[in-house]
Design a protein that fits this description.
146 residues, alpha+beta, eight-stranded mixed β-sheet, 2 helices, 8 strands
């Protein structure tokens, strides 16, 4: 049986992986070249420390875990890459709204506004444009190792 951390990562990867078009990978190296429809990298879940102890329920701790989602576009001019990134952000937002509890694994999933990266030049190829969305996943568990 997988740990809670791994089950959340798998559920998030399956949810985002259902976005039509981009290549979606969990904890993968960033590619040297992106597909035309973009690339989405889901980073590993960072549990952090418990943010609260649930009163009246022994050993119940509330966590706000973080995961970064990198969105990348490479093909075409800067305006085309910006349009691809906009499409990826909109598709990600729509997909996250379809299952905000990841099938009951979390209580709340809250995305940040996308943070832009500067364009990175690639020798012999189009530049890469990117954005990062940080998800905060709130949940209660009695055992963060389970």
């Amino acid at each position: 049986m997988a740990t809670l951390k791994r089950r959340i990562e798998q559920a998030l990867t399956a949810l985002i992986g259902a976005i039509p078009g981009p290549t979606v990978k969990f904890d993968a190296e960033l590619p040297s070249e992106c597909p035309v429809s973009g690339f989405v990298r889901i980073g590993p879940l960072d549990f952090g420390d418990p943010v609260d102890v649930i009163l009246g329920q022994p050993n119940q701790n509330e966590y706000e875990a973080m995961v970064e989602i990198d969105l990348l576009a490479q093909k075409g001019a800067k305006t085309a890459r910006a349009a691809t990134l906009d499409d990826l952000v909109l598709a990600l937002g729509a997909k996250l709204k379809t299952d905000p509890t990841l099938g009951g694994l979390v209580d709340l999933m809250q995305p940040s506004a996308p943070q832009s990266h500067s364009d990175e030049a690639v020798v012999g190829s189009d530049a890469v444009s990117g954005q990062v969305v940080t998800l905060t996943l709130s949940f209660v568990t009695s055992d963060p190792l389970a």
